[in-house]
């Protein structure tokens, strides 16, 4: 059932191109000009009445929501707040009837996420669920559902469910933007073309997996490491850090690259591995200067860079892994893949149980 792979996690990483295609299927018009989420029951008038959005989830699904915020704010110009589900209902969030609450859950059974959904509905908000399990509790109770068609995810560490959640957010962002009239047609078509290109681009990253195996093996004997990035790269850094901790048990932290010098830079000393995400054209110079700050303190830097800037980045770092060129907003769907592979190979090198890390359950159905 692992289809020739040593672990479910690796199989699921390799299933991502299919998961992307399946999640897009039937939702993008054949002429590549628009996105229609026909499964949504919310009317266009309702969409135009939304004043703010709360995205609520746990763990990796929360990290997908961080990218979702950027996608929705960029495309549909609706303000978005992100919340960890275990915090949401205890902070008395301001939920009004013009708030759309989006819950994100692979399993659809996470106790805190389900409780957040109920809290939102109790306060008169509509809830849209992004989930991978048809008929799950979250899917049954939400007012609307976007199903991610990643197929069953067995490994505790979420991979293809996360990236399919990103695809769902891109589609949702384009759907909302169409109704709200916030994007030029040419921009929409460019994003749709970019979405269609992603599966093959992921395949080309997977072909280079063995490069990451080597890096992971040299990383595996370090006690602690850092992930840095700006904008959506920071969101991806947070996901990369969680994945690494979860299955390799190596301590790591993710930082917004510009925030390091406000304290954390003190931890950078000779040989400390830093993984820097450099995919955003507008932020590229800024991130590069943060990379120079850590290099000057002796860090060993691996950059994950968009092809196009990789030559420039290479001058300032120890290693570069380059990802295919895409639009800035779509880059998380590519940039996370090398980070998934790094975690996998680090866990493997340390001899851990990759698919069933200690202390963790696939689905957290208690508070
Ligand atoms: O099923 P859910 O998406 O609601 O699960 C949320 C988290 O428990 C989950 O993403 C967790 O963080 C993963 N094991 C991370 O790989």
TrEMBL record:
Subcellular location(s) of the protein: Cytoplasm
E.C. number: 2.6.1.16
Active site residues according to the UniProt entry: 362 (for fru-6p isomerization activity)
UniProtKB keywords: Aminotransferase, Cytoplasm, Glutamine amidotransferase, Repeat, Transferase
A GO CC annotation given for this chain: cytosol
Primary site of residence: cytoplasm
Catalysed reactions, as listed in the record: D-fructose 6-phosphate + L-glutamine = D-glucosamine 6-phosphate + L-glutamate
Location of the SIS domain: 42-182, 215-357
GO terms of biological process kind: carbohydrate metabolic process; fructose 6-phosphate metabolic process; protein N-linked glycosylation; UDP-N-acetylglucosamine metabolic process
GO molecular function list: carbohydrate derivative binding; glutamine-fructose-6-phosphate transaminase (isomerizing) activity
Domain of life: Bacteria
Protein role: Catalyzes the first step in hexosamine metabolism, converting fructose-6P into glucosamine-6P using glutamine as a nitrogen source.
Subunit-structure text: Homodimer.
The protein, known as: Glutamine--fructose-6-phosphate aminotransferase [isomerizing]
Organism: Paenibacillus agaridevorans
Whole-protein residues included: 244 to 610 of 610
């Amino acid at each position: 059932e692992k289809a020739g792979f040593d672990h479910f996690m690796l199989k699921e990483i390799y299933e991502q191109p299919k998961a992307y295609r399946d999640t897009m299927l039937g939702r993008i018009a054949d002429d590549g000009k628009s996105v229609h989420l026909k499964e949504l029951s919310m009317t266009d008038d309702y969409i135009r009445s939304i004043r703010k959005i709360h995205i609520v989830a746990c763990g990796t699904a929360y990290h997908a929501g961080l990218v979702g915020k950027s996608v929705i704010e960029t495309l549909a110009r609706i303000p978005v707040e992100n919340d960890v589900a275990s915090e949401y209902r205890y902070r008395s969030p301001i939920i009004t009837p013009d708030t759309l609450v989006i819950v994100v859950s692979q399993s659809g059974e996470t106790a805190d996420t389900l409780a957040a959904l109920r809290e939102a509905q109790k306060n008169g908000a509509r809830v849209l669920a992004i989930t991978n399990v048809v008929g799950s509790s979250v899917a049954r109770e939400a007012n609307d559902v976007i199903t991610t068609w990643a197929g069953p995810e067995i490994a505790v560490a979420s991979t293809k469910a996360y990236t399919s959640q990103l695809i769902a957010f891109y589609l949702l962002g384009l759907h909302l933007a169409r109704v709200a009239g916030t994007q030029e047609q040419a921009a929409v078509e460019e994003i749709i073309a970019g979405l269609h290109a992603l599966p093959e681009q992921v395949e080309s990253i997977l072909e280079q997996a063995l490069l990451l195996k080597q890096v992971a093996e040299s990383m595996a004997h370090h006690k602690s490491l850092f992930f840095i990035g700006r904008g959506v790269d920071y969101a991806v850094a947070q996901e990369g850090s969680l994945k690494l901790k979860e299955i390799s048990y190596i301590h790591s932290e993710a930082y917004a690259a510009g925030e390091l010098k406000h304290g954390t830079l003190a931890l950078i000393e000779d040989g400390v591995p830093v993984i820097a995400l450099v995919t955003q054209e507008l932020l590229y110079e800024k991130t590069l200067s943060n990379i120079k700050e850590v290099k000057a303190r002796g860090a060993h830097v691996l950059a994950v860079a968009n092809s196009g800037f990789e030559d420039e980045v290479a001058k300032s770092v120890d290693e570069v892994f380059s990802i295919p060129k895409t639009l800035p907003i779509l880059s998380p769907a590519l940039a996370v893949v090398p980070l998934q592979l790094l975690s996998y190979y680090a866990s493997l090198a340390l001899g851990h149980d990759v698919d069933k890390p200690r202390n963790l359950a696939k689905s957290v159905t208690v508070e």
